Amino acid sequence: MPPTADVSTDPSTWERGIWWRRLFLGALTIVVLAGLLGVFGVRSRTVSARSRSGRVDLDVTYAQSARAGLDVPFDIEVHRDGGFHGDVVLSISSDYLSLFNRSSVDPQPDSETSTSHNVRWRYDRPPGDTFVVTVDMEVQQGRHWGRSGRVAVLDGAGHTLAHASFRTWLAP
Q1: Helix count (H) and strand count (E) of the chain?
Q2: Where are the alpha helices (DSSP H) in 37-124?
């Protein structure tokens, strides 16, 4: 008996195989094109918030999507009409920060404290109307799916003046 005797000669079997190969190659093409277009890279976004009085504005630039091992943006800008009359206190959700390896915070906070859910950075009264904090960080290896975060500007008594919420999605 020849070695090809048990190979099916049914045309419907061949047609199904061709369609499965086409489907696989189409999906593979979509993934490669998405990679070339930067879909799986870092995409940043800025969220803004304003205090009830309208005197304090908060802008947070963060990575809306990223993947493990990539550097991501995280900038906090606080603007107060008429300048700052005291210290600037920022509260950042510690659960969100735990996604990242932080290399540096610029400028360094004058003091840092932690609660069960937040990290608080206190800065001595800055000059001018605008204060910017830049955090150099990258997504930790093995982190997937992402999570939500929150940044708030607090007054001297610890009450929230303005807060911004956001979510970072991490590609698996």
Answers
A1: 2, 11
A2: 94-97
